[in-house]
Design brief:
GO terms for molecular function: transaminase activity. By secondary structure, this protein is α/β, with parallel strands linked by helices. The protein is 45% helix and 15% strand. Strand 3 (119-124), helix 5 (130-136) and strand 4 (140-145) form a beta-alpha-beta unit. The protein binds pyridoxal-5'-phosphate and (2S)-2-hydroxy-3-(4-hydroxyphenyl)propanoic acid.
């Protein structure tokens, strides 16, 4: 019966939020979950989103169902941002999903429907939600070591070997930018080489892009995705607006799908819609509607990149501060997005938590903007003390 269910391992990143919240020490530092915070430690609602939400309240006449594809105008307006020069490609279709997570699940559902024998080639470490989502649809995972923790850099040779062993139809899961949890992104040259191998081996690229605009800029951060679209007939992308519009809990994501023809894409999208119907039927509207209004209102659309680059600039400024504090942390300055991994053991992560009230994932992953400006020095001092111990 239901009472006989075994215990499950809960999402340790989300668990960390509760652990930190329960800590009574006022000096505590929450560098766990990946949410942007400003220099004072707040996660504000973007001004353009606040204004869009006001417009939504003032003008929305109905909350009746929109249909399976959600807000189609939102998806249409997102295309130039996510797809760049490929925005007009009729072989690419998009569907609004509950966050990037929903897009990931839906993309893998489609693969499992089309080719259950496909294996998914995944670099480790990766985002801890990736493997459970892939396993949930019954696909097999092939792991390769993506990151050299000692060197603080990508193990590109291992990546290349793993991809070259891929069989036609196998899936390659790639982080579009701001690699979670390592912060180690492929260089432009490395993207080009990966793209060549993907084509050579007939692999299906699956790009997870959840932080567009948090690394170098909207266009730059999608460079790898756009390069793949230049040469690949088939591609799946899971896009999220939850970070770059700061609407996390509103769950704003999109699945993009490309096949060799508009007809085949439409057929595949019918399967995608069927899978979505089995899971959530229709995506939630509010966040996507707010993003749609921003992108559909020239004045708001023009202001959004400024608010986005303010978030990016803060991320990169904190990175430089940490990197310049100790040579052993210098690699953090050359990485991107909110995450990096410290060269610490699980025991040291626990010690940082107990002794210094500093919360980060067991893997040593920390959120660089989890630190307010006032907390950076104490964080660095505690980490250096731990590394010296
Ligand atoms: N992919 C990666 C790598 C992420 O870090 C996240 C973060 O939440 C997501 C996907 C999913 O984003 P969302 O919150 O939009 O579901
Ligand atoms: O990695 C992170 O911290 C973010 C937030 O189930 C997140 O991606 C963490 C866990 C989760 C959903 C989002």
């Amino acid at each position: 019966g239901l009472a006989d269910l075994p215990a499950v391992e809960t999402d340790s990143l989300l668990q960390l939020i509760a652990l930190c919240n329960a800590d009574p020490r006022p000096e505590k530092i929450d560098a766990g979950v990946g949410v942007f915070r400003d220099s004072e430690g707040r996660t504000p609602i973007l001004k353009v989103i606040k204004e869009a939400e006001q417009i939504l309240v003032d003008t929305q006449e109905s909350k009746s169902y929109l249909g399976m594809a959600g807000d189609k105008r939102y998806t249409e307006l997102l295309r130039p941002i996510a797809l760049g020069r490929h925005a007009e490609d009729p072989r690419i279709a998009g569907l609004q999903t509950p966050g990037g997570c929903g897009a990931l699940r839906l993309g893998f559902e489609l693969i499992a429907t089309a080719n259950p024998q496909a294996r998914v080639i995944v670099g480790t470490p990766t985002w801890p939600n990736h493997p459970p989502i892939i396993r949930a649809v019954g696909l097999q995972i092939v792991e390769y070591p993506y990151y050299d923790r000692e060197a603080g850099s990508i193990r590109f040779d291992a990546m290349v070997s793993a991809l070259k062993e891929g069989r036609p139809g196998d899936v390659v899961l790639l982080h579009g930018c701001c690699h979670n949890p390592t912060g180690a992104d492929l260089s432009d040259d490395q993207w080009d080489e990966v793209t060549r191998i993907v084509v050579e081996r007939g692999l299906l690229p699956f790009v997870d892009i959840a932080y567009q605009g948090f690394a170098r800029g909207l266009e730059q951060d999608a460079r790898g995705l756009h390069g793949l679209l230049d040469v690949c007939d088939e591609l799946i992308a899971a896009h999220s607006c939850d970070k770059n519009f700061s609407v996390y809990r509103d769950r704003v994501g999109t699945l993009f799908l490309k096949t060799g023809s508009a007809e085949a894409t439409a057929r595949a999208m019918a399967h995608v819609s069927q899978r979505a119907r089995e899971m959530w039927s229709m995506p939630p509207d509010h966040g996507a509607a707010a993003v749609r209004i921003v992108l559909d209102t020239p004045e708001l659309k023009q202001r959004w990149p400024g608010e986005l680059s303010a978030m990016r600039d803060r991320i990169n400024a904190v990175r430089q501060r940490i990197a310049s504090a100790d040579p052993r942390l210098a690699y953090i300055g050359g990485q991107f997005g909110m995450f990096s991994m410290l060269p610490v053991s699980k025991e040291q992560v626990l010690a940082l938590r107990e002794k210094h009230a500093i919360y980060m994932a067991d893997s040593g992953r920390f959120n660089v903007v989890g630190l307010s400006d006032a907390q950076v020095d104490r964080f660095v001092a505690a980490v250096v003390e731990t590394l010296n111990a």
